[in-house]
Amino acid sequence: MRPTLIFVRCVVFYQIIYVARNPKDVAVSFYHFDKMNQLHPEPGPWEGYVDKFIQGNMGFGSWGTHVKEFWALKQERNILYMFYEDMLEDPKREIRKVMRFLGKDLSDDVLEKTCLHTSFKAMKENPVTNYTAIDSSIMNQSVSPFMRKGICGDWKNHFTVAQNERFDEYYQKEMSGTDLSFRF
């Protein structure tokens, strides 16, 4: 008996959910994260951090490049592009978008429970999502909690007028030539 070769074509199916956030709040959030994350280099003072962010000298590279590449990819790949600010504004609407994207349906009861358990308040209190179980030699949450505020617009408490003007120039340059825009 001769062996039979069988060739199987394997198709990998993936779905990506990409959540983008306005860059000013991202800069503030990452600054506090870098301060508490003992595995990252010391971020230095806020004044220099803003310039570092604008120059793209971050662990993830340039914020503008990152968000624009995924914005373009969503036309070609199975990517749901979402905005953090929309999630804050109407969590139920955004959860429904995710469920449609995943081809799932939720009962109203499950939707309510999902909203409750994925709220910032609930996640901030949950050791599984707030990382309080991680040793302080890795994440020193006495410096800044992992789940800090979860709001839109906290950048206004950090940026000086000059930093804001410089950042606005950066943002305009980064977003030119694209229909991608963020709410501040």
From TrEMBL:
Domain called Sulfotransferase: residue spans: 15-178
Keyword Transferase listed: yes
GO molecular function, one term: sulfotransferase activity
Keywords assigned: Transferase
Gene3D superfamilies on file: P-loop containing nucleotide triphosphate hydrolases
Top-level EC class: transferase
Homology family: Belongs to the sulfotransferase 1 family.
Descriptive protein name: Sulfotransferase
UniProt source species: Eleutherodactylus coqui (Puerto Rican coqui)
Upper classification of the organism: Eukaryota, Metazoa, Chordata, Craniata, Vertebrata
